[in-house]
């Protein structure tokens, strides 16, 4: 397994992610595209010291972008992980 800091890139703090945190005790992370659910679970448990119940993931493909007249490029593919913590567990993000 890679180091936990290598798998979890950032915490996603959008309005929808904040609602998931407040209402369902779920936290949303941006993770490496090749990270598996068991690896994400171990990484969150080791980084924050909390018990993880389940992990859901979603893959997102990069978008094509155009710069100037002829230059095109593609943003990188990424993966989102939604982590459900055990009852009574919380992560202080701010």
How are the elements arranged and paired?
Layout: H1 4-7, E1 8-11, H2 15-24, E2 26-31, H3 37-48, E3 52-60, E4 64-67, E5 71-74, E6 78-85
Antiparallel strand pairs: 1-2, 2-6, 3-6, 4-5
The CATH architecture category equals 2-Layer Sandwich
| Count of discrete alpha- or pi-helical segments spanning 4 or more residues | 3
One letter per element, helices H and strands E, the order comes to: HEHEHEEEE
Task: Return the CATH topology.
Answer: Alpha-Beta Plaits
Cross-sheet strand order for the largest sheet: 1-2-6-3
Cα(first) to Cα(last) distance is 28 Å
Written overview of the protein:
With 94 residues, the protein is an alpha+beta fold. It has a single domain, classed as RRM (RNA recognition motif) domain (Alpha-Beta Plaits), CATH 3.30.70.330. The chain is 28% helix and 37% strand. It has three helices and six strands. It has helices at residues 4-7, 15-24, 37-48, and strands spanning 8-11, 26-31, 52-60, 64-67, 71-74, 78-85. The strands form two sheets. The protein has a four-stranded antiparallel sheet. It has a two-stranded antiparallel ribbon with strand order 4-5. The longest helix is centred in the middle third of the chain and has 12 residues, at 37-48. The chain starts with a helix and ends in a 9-residue tail after the last strand.
